[in-house]
Amino acid sequence: MKLLSPDELEAALRDIGARSYHRLHPFHALLHGGRCSKGQVQAWALNRYYYQAMIPVKDASLIARCEDSDLRREWRSRLVDHDGAEKGDGGIARWLKLTDGLGLDRDDVVSLRGLLPATRFAVDAYVHFVRERSLLEAVASSLTELFSPVIISERMEGMLKGYPFVTAETLAYFSKRPPQARRDADFALDYVKRHAETPAEQQAVLAALTFKCDVLWAQLDALYAAYVDPKHVPPGAFVPQE
Amino acid sequence: MKLLSPDELEAALRDIGARSYHRLHPFHALLHGGRCSKGQVQAWALNRYYYQAMIPVKDASLIARCEDSDLRREWRSRLVDHDGAEKGDGGIARWLKLTDGLGLDRDDVVSLRGLLPATRFAVDAYVHFVRERSLLEAVASSLTELFSPVIISERMEGMLKGYPFVTAETLAYFSKRPPQARRDADFALDYVKRHAETPAEQQAVLAALTFKCDVLWAQLDALYAAYVDPKHVPPGAFVPQE
User: Fold this and answer.
1) What is the third-level CATH fold of A6-227?
2) Contact A118 B117 (CB under 8 A)
3) A27-84 tens-digit pLDDT
């Protein structure tokens, strides 16, 4: 292992995204191409709700282990983005507008009844990673946000065009996210470029991003297997009505 | 929720097994029916290795939070079963004889290169469950062993008959397990019947067994999707040679 320059480290991070980010997953091609049934879109939104709901738990876990007031203050904006300035505001509330718009019962969504166990295991793995690994790795695991503005614009365009049951209002979550994601990713990228000072730390940063890509990919694998092919819904998980 | 008698609790536990234990998963029908390719059997053994390797970590995590010397001593026998009395002995060593027999490189197996991320997330979820939930739930999550002697006898018979590359020697892991599993399951069942004294505790015990069935089921879902249908191998995971 040799020491990379900060720019070489950034290039290696972007290369991981180009090979492993879930934009490449076949489920997204179906979803964005308007080729999912309403039940499949519901299953996606229902499962992804758990990821959204746990993001502030993940971010608070990072803040909780951080001794630097500047970093805590910076990272705190993510809590505001997801939990909102007041009730009904923020990313989680906007995600529930999406599940409402798709005809899912809000109590069902929030209760996590019907969640795929594989979704829970992948999301919880992310929370545990942030609690247990080094602060540097915890920050690096957020770097999938580097790649999210592109997937979000593809998703909004494709879903509005492809599904009569999707409106700009139900997609409000996505219209708010890109500037937040850009700001957060720029900060985290700068942080890891400055703080990964040894080859071992740089490799840990790269492995953290690979891990996070796996977390996202595994969620789509589980959706695909349960609801697209071979349609093996695990015992107790959501069964679409149509 | 009403208070169940100990025998009603046992019946409810056995009912969860009858509906959700991974013996019902279609991957096992293929594996035990001799209908897997060698590459699919390799993928199963490679992934299941991680589960085997983490079982003593899980058991030590349970012992570590246990203030009762009697329970610690009883549970310690599980460490001996898996780690052995000496090097080369025990369940993990016997699992590596299986992966050796299937033509997998031992360094590859032990390194966890090629492991499906979904396997890692499911197994780690089990370890975290045992560390974070009540001791009663941690004990209850081991109760899938109630159902393992049947699946093991089906597996040994089916695999010896179905695969020319499988021998009684490579299946040594399974010939040793049933009496250990029976002793452990009897102890854990008696423990939860005596210690789940309120309806809430009984429901927690039932939920713990459901959780554990989900952990096992999710591992087979991931194997099926990656290596049987639709054969979507996630980035970086094991690719069979044949």
Assistant:
1) Heme Oxygenase; Chain A (1.20.910)
2) no
3) 999 999 999 999 999 999 999 999 999 999 999 999 999 999 999 999 999 999 999 9
Cα dihedral B107→B110→B111→B115 (10° resolution): 120
Please state the domain extents for chain A: 6-227
pLDDT single digits (tens) A153-204: 999 999 999 999 999 999 999 999 999 999 999 999 999 999 999 999 999 9
Whether residue B221 and residue A224 make contact (CB cut-off 8 A), yes or no, is no
| Residues of chain B contacting A, Cβ within 8 Å | 19-20, 26, 117-118, 120-122, 124-125, 128, 210-211, 213-215, 217-218, 221-222, 224-226, 228-230, 232, 234-236
ipTM of the complex: 0.91
Q: Which residues of chain A neighbour B26 with C-beta distances below 8 Å? A: 232
On whether the CB atoms of residues B144 and B209 are closer than 8 A, the answer is yes
pLDDT of residue B100: 97
Distance from CA of A88 to the nearest CA of B (A): 31
Tell me how many residue pairs between chain A and chain B have CB atoms under 8 A apart.
96
Cβ of A124 within 8 Å of Cβ of B128? The answer is: yes
Length of chain A: 242
pTM as predicted: 0.94
Yes or no: domain B6-29+38-227 corresponds to CATH 3.40.1050.10? no
Q: Three-state SS across A149-196?
A: HHHHHHHHHHHHHHCCCCCCCCCHHHHHHHHHHHHHHHHHHHHHHHHC
Which two three-digit tokens encode residue A30?
A: 């179906």
